[in-house]
Amino acid sequence: VVGGAAGNIIGNKMDKQAQRIEEEIPGAEVERIDDGIVINFDENSGVYFATEKYDINNASEETLNGLSKVMKEYPQTNILVVGHTDNTGSANYNMTLSKNRAQAVTNYLEQQGLSAGRFTTQWYGEEQPKYDNTTADGRSKNRRVTLAIVPNQQMKEEAKQQAGEGN
Does the pTM of the predicted model rise above 0.85? Predict the structure, then answer.
């Protein structure tokens, strides 16, 4: 987390990017946390998967295309891609499946022209359900990839220089 005047400069840039994401992806709710942006989706705009699948469906493509467009406008930010599953299947299987989901999203965004160096992937299998896994609806919403956006080192350094804070 960058503080002081540099933090304000970064905050303003991230606020603008958050606003663009909300404009580009209907149903996306952005939350500013520290220097970053966490993107929360409704059930119509998110990146969701069929049971035991990690292929990108048409609805998810629309969401990712919108995100890709905004990310191209803000090249000084990086993306954290986090894969999740429901609790159907073994824990080991779900861990691999969530990894494959995160990687599928990363690969798709790279195919849209975003640099591989901008991505960090994580996966949690069934360990972080957001919804009730005892219902079909809850399980379908837990088969997801979540996204967060953070400033890269170049943005942080430029903000420090603009703020007169040096290195």
Answer: yes
